[in-house]
């Protein structure tokens, strides 16, 4: 391979030209089983698709390259990737996660704790004193998320890694909202980085997939590999191929989404009808300085607004946009808006008046006009 930049390698999906046909786009390999030669040796890299076929292996190579990882593995969803990490915790093992994090992952951890599969402590994202206090010699896994859904609190990855490693624990990070074009979580010290590839990596809201990449091919990674190939939570070949197609434009999409979100966040500061604009790219965001150091190529397209007038105003706002589509998920080319409280439920610490925006690739001025019109409808 050449010394080309990660951007170039991503655009060309690592310049893998099909050797048989010269096709510049790889073929899809839907086969589940793979023939052996007369010597009973495998002809290719695999005998069966549950651990992965040629299409999955190629996508995993691109993702490993992006993360600076020796290996990456594809899963059928982001949650399947997280579930494999949780499964790798020994029975009774101690896990530390966040009070504020992707709510599906928090529920999964709380479920495991309720069944006494693991013991669990939750700390505020970015509170390194609380993290240090919670970490102990029997801690197996520290699971962080940065920026954390949906306030976009920032966790100092390098410092969290030091805290984890001081007690011999693994640091895992859900970096879905800081894809590898902006954050190199493994280089900062994380041991395992996870993404919902459903979001920025695919970027077109038409593939469900997840990825794990590792800093070292160690015992934990072997355990995760065993879980991966035995449980078979792998994406289909067609989905994987679509993911690689989407991945080619990751850098340019993320750059545009970050620029638009920053422009919108700046424009909305002090806007009547808004109590707070939550975006790590704003100088006033509590995690801004750390974010600037570890999100080196943009702060992303995710921002949240706290709408003046509480729950009903936030509900009205989310229902009143014309361009932002009222839907869950994030990181796609189309902009989305979501009132989080009714989605996360009454137990969630998310404020009643918080709406989450995923900024897509539309014209930023159009999006800002849409937000202002919805604000007028909701609070005017
Ligand atoms: C969407 C998401 C997940 C879950 O991923 P799926 O692909 O939906 O299973 C996990 N973490 C974050 C931050 C997400 O946004």
Tally of helical segments: 13
Rg calculated over all Cα atoms: 21 Å
- CATH architecture level-2 label of the largest domain: 3-Layer(aba) Sandwich
CATH-level-4 superfamily name of the largest domain: Type I PLP-dependent aspartate aminotransferase-like (Major domain)
Low-confidence stretches: none
User: How do the helices and strands follow one another from N- to C-terminus?
Assistant: HHEHEHEHEHEEEHHHEHEHEEHEH
> What is the topology, as strand order, of the major beta sheet?
1-7-6-5-4-2-3
Total individual domains: 2
Structural class: alpha/beta
CATH hierarchy, class of the largest domain? Alpha Beta
Q: What is the straight-line distance between the termini?
A: 58 Å
Question: Strand tally, please?
Answer: 12
Average pLDDT over all residues: 96
Write out the distinct hetero groups bound to the structure.
Answer: pyridoxal-5'-phosphate
Biggest sheet descriptor: 7 strands, mixed
The helicity comes to 25-40%
Strand fraction equals 15-25%
Question: What gross morphology would you assign?
Answer: globular
Quick summary of this structure?
This protein has 380 residues and is α/β, with parallel strands linked by helices. The chain contains 13 helices and 12 strands. The strands form 2 sheets. It has a 7-stranded mixed β-sheet with strand order 1-7-6-5-4-2-3, sandwiched between helices. A 5-stranded mixed β-sheet has the order 8-9-12-11-10.
């Amino acid at each position: 391979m050449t010394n080309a930049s990660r951007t170039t390698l991503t655009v060309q999906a690592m310049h893998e030209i099909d050797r048989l046909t010269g096709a510049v786009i790889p073929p899809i390999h839907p086969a589940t089983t793979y023939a052996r030669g007369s010597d009973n040796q495998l002809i290719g890299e695999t005998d069966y698709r549950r651990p992965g076929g040629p299409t999955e292996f190629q996508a995993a190579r691109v993702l490993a390259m992006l993360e600076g990882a020796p290996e990456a593995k594809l899963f059928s969803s982001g949650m399947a990737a997280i579930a494999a990490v949780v499964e790798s915790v020994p029975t009774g093992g101690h896990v530390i996660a966040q009070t504020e994090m992707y709510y599906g992952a928090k529920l999964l951890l709380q479920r495991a704790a309720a069944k006494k599969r693991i013991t669990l402590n939750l700390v505020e994202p970015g509170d390194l004193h609380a993290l240090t206090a919670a970490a102990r010699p029997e801690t197996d896994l520290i699971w962080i998320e940065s920026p954390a859904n949906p306030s976009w609190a920032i966790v100092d990855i390098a410092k969290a890694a030091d805290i984890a490693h001081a007690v011999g624990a693994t640091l895992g990070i859900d970096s879905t909202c800081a894809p590898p074009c902006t954050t190199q979580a493994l280089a900062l010290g994380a041991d395992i980085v996870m993404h919902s590839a459903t979001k920025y990596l695919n970027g077109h809201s038409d593939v469900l997939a997840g990825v794990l990449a590792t800093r070292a091919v160690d015992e934990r990674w072997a355990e995760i590999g065993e879980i991966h190939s035995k449980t078979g939570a792998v994406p289909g070949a067609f989905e994987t191929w679509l993911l690689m197609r989407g991945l080619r434009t990751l850098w340019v999409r993320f750059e545009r989404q970050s620029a638009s979100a920053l422009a919108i966040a700046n424009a909305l500061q002090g806007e009547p009808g808004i109590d707070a604009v939550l975006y790590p790219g704003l100088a006033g965001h509590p995690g801004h300085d750390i974010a600037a150091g570890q999100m080196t190529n943009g702060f992303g397209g995710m921002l949240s607004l706290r709408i003046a007038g509480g729950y009903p105003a936030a509900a009205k706002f989310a229902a009143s946009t014309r361009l932002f589509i009222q839907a869950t998920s994030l990181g796609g080319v189309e902009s989305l808006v979501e009132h989080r409280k009714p989605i996360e439920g009454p137990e969630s610490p998310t404020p009643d008046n918080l709406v989450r925006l995923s900024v897509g690739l539309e014209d930023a001025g159009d999006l800002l006009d849409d937000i202002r019109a919805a604000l007028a409808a909701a609070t005017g």
